Give the backbone structure.
Amino acid sequence: MNTMKSIWKNLTSMWATAIFWFASAGVNLAHAVNDLPGGPAVNQINLYPPVTSVARDQQWLHWFMLILCAVIFVAVFTVMFYSIWKHRKSVGHKAATFHESVTVEIIWTVVPFIIVILMALPATKAVVSSKDTTNADLTIKVTGMQWKWGYDYLKGEGEGIGFVATLDADQREMSNNGGPKKGQDVDNYLLKVDNPLVVPVDKKVRLITTANDVIHAFYVPAFGIQQAAIPGFVRDTWFRAEKTGDFYGQCSQLCGKEHSYMPIHVKVVSAEDYSKWVAGEQKKMTSKADDPSKVWTLEEISQRGEKVYAQNCVACHQANGKGGGPVKPLDAAAVVLDSDKTKQIMVLLNGQNNGAMPSWKALSDTDIAAVISFTKNHWSNKTDQLVQPSEVMALRK
Amino acid sequence: MSAVLDHHDHDHVHHDDHHAPTGWRRWVFATNHKDIGTPYLLFSFTMLIIGGILALIIRAELFQPGLQLVNPELFNQLTTMHGLIMVFGAIMPAFVGFANWMIPLQIGAADMAFARMNNFSFWLMIPAALMIVSSFFMPGGAPAAGWTLYAPLTLQMGPSMDAGIFALHILGASSIMGSINIIVTILNMRAPGMTLMKMPMFAWTWLITAYLLIAVMPVLAGAITMTLTDRHFGTSFFNPAGGGDPVMYQHIFWFFGHPEVYIMILPAFGIVSHVVPTFARKKLFGYASMVYATSSIAILSFIVWAHHMFTSGMPVTGQLFFMYATMLIAVPTAVKIFNWIATMWQGSMTFETPMLFAVGFIFVFTMGGFTGLILAMAPIDIQLHDTYYVVAHFHYVLVAGSLYAMFAGYYYWSPKWTGVMYSETRGKIHFWWSLIAFNVTFFPMHFLGLAGMPRRYADYPMQFADFNAVASVGGFAFGFAQVYFFVFVVLPALRGQGEKAPQRPWEAAEGLEWEVPSPAPFHTFETPPKLNAAANKIIG
């Protein structure tokens, strides 16, 4: 018995030391980090400070449930531990013989039933208000993509704005290198994006979620919203942020290897700031847009085409234009060399081989014209043919 | 009693030629329920250790922010395979192992109804397990779409996905055969006088579980077969590119998945319902209400599935219906907890290891039950869905629930299986070590979930670092506790080391399994025993 006790003692002290060592290692590492306003706090143990009415309802409900469950838990287990304390053989307690009572069974079926109904009542109210997406001031389409978020402002102030948000490349690299090192600014580690979603304060924002590839989920805890983004389908949710500031969230539905690396950053700004931001974005858009009736020179358009090729085509057709496997080569290909430019334009607009070559309709006329001109005059292809954007425009539809 | 012993002797006389082959043939050609139960248990323990190693690699990676050990691709494979192996390889077969050993002994049957099918359902699991474990070495690695195998992510997986689907098909077939066997055995082979309402609770819970299995395993098979044809034969059941519906996959999967979680817990309820009365030296309180509560849970389990999908997008009425139905399950579950505590009340309790695990089960499982109730509330679930809160919740009910009940069952019945007693000190070390390590691992996950850390994340913001570090330390401690269990409790028992177990090692144990010697002879109840009025003792 004594040896057992000492073994037990040794074991516990061993574990205590180990736990202390590991825990202090964790604390040392994390000492540089601060709370991120609108994002997680260091060692946060409860829900986020709510920024919308929906999140406030959720928080209230959670406290209500937590307290109710804790009270029941303590009550039930007080009875059990009292019994364990008093009704032991070692204290000489003799076993009673009762083993059924219909009255008792009915009571402890009915009482939990009533408690459950009491719990359901406030929850019902919260469900109904959280699902009401009508009368939105601003509608934004949120598209989940492997592994970034696309935002398109569909209706309301800022209509027509669209951009994509990806995780900061340095932070992604940091993750690969074993996480932030001491002294690095890490408060927003894995939460920093290039283009945050910007919305006005105190306006009802309806989000329409969808996805391009697999299911993602748009989750912003401070707003109390989490909505799956499902390819081929649209779902919606809403929020009305009551405070300006930065708020963070992450994709919460497993979506492939970079699942942990597609954060959400929502910037809530005042009405004026929002209008300013919209004006700025719209200016950028017009400067970016190409005039499809512009007439290009071969050199100009080939340069443009090289970029388009690098962004869209190189993954399959390769930098050397030879393709590979089922992917057809472009270098010395009949369609590319053909003097009838229409053929290649049609392939790009409509795709080929049952979508093995997808349709690139989504690219602008200028981009399509540029990439065709580029392929017709690169590698061993020397056709000197030039496709103008207007020719593509004419063949659309 | 004497009838049993007579047959035991009789058996020895004719032992050699047709009854029991020896050597490897004894196990490969086994038709005896005891010789099939043991490999089932060893198999599931092996899978528990494999699944546990995967979990520990996950926990080691998550010990600190940043990627140190595995890349994100492998991380997703690990979470997926941990889930699949634990659910289909460890917990489900372990309960089938318990059923094989105990159901014929408890109901006074000579064996399972279909002895050869019993053999087949065990040996089917071996190729399935090999296939699923070796999928790590296939091109592209193991399936990495999560154990729920949500489409259309499954459509992007490499060839190992097909191996995984095939393995699940085989495991499903094995489960269905096992269930048919259990149902037929229980309904047809009870000793005369053992009416259904006199049947031991473990047999009752397994009877209900077996019906659940038969009802839902084909549904899973359907879902993964459609995934397979989407992957290879150009169908578009779930592929949105062809007009398929990924949400339909979730509905079908969870129509299987929710009854599945009760499949993994009802037999646990059965085991605890034997252990608590034995060590309280008092009959189980409210036997009939326990049977009704178990049945209610089983029936309700079919109408709650979409609470796993509150964030998939559902009309208000849908959310409300599934929220109410889910909360309703709290009622029969509460009844069970109350009945166990009422059984302990005014008893004369002792706390040998089985009782410790049973009380630990009641205490910790109830926490998991309460977090389940909290998650059932749709508005709260919108916050907590797919976060670590959910991970904490289901480990509280599956580890502290199912696994603890199995440990209780092992300590309770192993003297009957092996003929030797375990060491009480070692059992107690195993219990306290597991209990503490379990809570160190999983309790902080509630905080991580409330703070918004999504599950299945290979790397996380720095603010989550400390709780993750604590959980990792706890995880390793819990893992070593199970190695300790195997080396210091199971191995000695398999080698026959330890005090010789009496026929009835527990003072107040009731039931037919305690009416046969320890270890239970190769053949028991070859002729139906004559039972007393309560059907728990053999007379004459």
User: Anything to note?
Assistant: Chain A touches chain B through 117 residues (CB under 8 Å). Strands of chain A lie at 138-145, 148-155, 162-165, 197-200, 205-211, 216-220, 225-229, 235-239, 245-251, 263-269. Chain A has a mean pLDDT of 88.
